[in-house]
Write a structure and sequence with these properties.
With 342 residues, the chain is an alpha/beta fold. The chain folds into three domains: 82 residues, Beta Barrel (OB fold (Dihydrolipoamide Acetyltransferase, E2P)), CATH 2.40.50.140; 160 residues, P-loop containing nucleotide triphosphate hydrolases (Rossmann fold), CATH 3.40.50.300; 63 residues, Probable gtpase engc, domain 3 (Ribonucleotide Reductase Protein R1, domain 1, Orthogonal Bundle). The chain contains ten helices and 13 strands. Strands 1-2-3-5-4 form a five-stranded mixed β-barrel. A two-stranded antiparallel sheet has the order 6-7. Strand 1 and strand 2 form a beta hairpin. The longest helix is centred in the C-terminal third of the chain and has 29 residues.
């Protein structure tokens, strides 16, 4: 029996129904398996092709195809395919685009689980992990925090416990990808047809981890600088890598900026401990600053809640509020007709 490449990439009846609803008669379904700046590769039943984008999809970062997207494509006369439409996403890991523009950038789509990777060297930053967890909950995928380079620390258990406190309900796994330790603990989250995205800053060891899970040197790796634990971006593209067990891994370049995007509900999920305490505040709109009867500040005073945890919460709440204001202003400007010249 001829194998169906789409089934190996996670195709199911739900995707078939979504594709049929597009009603593009001459199109076939495909999955985006690689994005390299302005070029893309897709896999369809007819094979792997270079994908081209029409202007309407190229224009908007939110609707532009991302790695992991299912798309409808048609064959081009000169070779390659034209991506005609993107199927509705089941999940998407998104952030605000770098810089001042108020636009969404989808990093990866239709992901089941996100491995949020942090190095246990000088890269270790609890506040950054909070940001990643917030974005992961907003994506619709399940987060797993991976603490890599566990061979560098003697207090791994304490650090893992700290991360478990700031990411309630999120699995935390300590590994050493370089020395192949703890990798088997990640395999519980793998499985044929499942899509796993790897996210983290440059130098945390994402490519080394991919190589360990793959059992081969597929991704290029590089050493990090000892004085600040920063590394070169050895991954410059986003790509789906298929593991021997059928799991689909999406490796991403290291992120220099992690600017929030999405809904405030993600904060409620990522900071469920703070939200639970806030339910006991005297005022519903308590900002947890100087209001009387603030249960959150009382928890900080008693040592039940870390001050840094509250600071991280406040900062993200403020960023979401500022983002909503910019979106409102942008919408107002776009809806205001231009003045006529006299």
């Amino acid at each position: 029996m001829t194998r169906d490449p789409l089934l190996e990439l996670g195709w199911d009846e739900g995707w078939q129904e979504a594709f049929d609803a597009l009603a593009i008669g001459d199109a076939e379904p495909a999955r985006v398996v690689r994005i390299d700046r302005e070029t893309s590769r897709v896999v369809a039943r007819s094979g792997e092709h270079a994908g081209q984008l029409p202007k309407k999809l190229r224009r908007d970062p939110a609707t532009r195809p991302a790695v992991g997207d299912w798309v409808a494509v048609t064959t081009l006369p000169g070779g390659g395919v034209l991506i005609r439409a993107v199927l509705p996403r089941r999940s998407r890991f998104a952030r605000k685009v770098a810089g001042k523009a108020t636009e969404e950038q989808v990093v990866s789509a239709n992901v089941d689980t996100v491995f949020l990777i942090s190095g246990l060297d000088q890269d270790f930053n609890p506040r950054r992990i909070e940001r990643y967890v917030t974005l992961a909950w907003d994506s619709g995928a399940s987060p797993v925090v991976v603490l890599n380079k566990a061979d560098l620390r003697a207090d791994v258990g304490e650090l893992a416990a700290e991360v478990e406190e700031l990411a309630p309900g999120v699995p935390v796994v300590a590994v050493s990808a370089k020395h192949d330790r703890g990798i088997d603990r990640l395999r519980a989250h793998l499985g044929a047809g499942r899509t796993i995205a790897l996210l983290g800053s440059s130098g945390v060891g994402k490519s080394t981890l991919v190589n360990r899970l793959l059992g081969a040197e597929h991704m290029r790796t590089a050493e990090v600088r000892e004085h600040d634990s920063h590394g070169r971006h050895t991954t410059t593209h986003r790509e789906v890598v298929r593991l021997p067990d059928g799991t689909l891994l999406v490796d991403n370049p290291g992120m220099r900026e992690i600017q929030v995007w999405g809904s405030e509900e993600a904060i409620e999920e990522a900071f469920s401990d703070v939200e639970t305490l806030a339910a006991g505040c005297r005022f519903r709109d308590c900002s947890h600053e100087r209001e009387p009867g603030c249960a959150v500040r009382a928890a900080v005073a008693s040592g039940a809640l870390c001050e840094d945890r509250l600071s991280g919460y406040r900062k993200l709440v403020g960023e979401y509020a500022a983002l909503r204001e910019r979106e409102t202003e942008r919408a107002r400007r776009s809806s205001t007709p231009p003045r006529r010249r006299r």
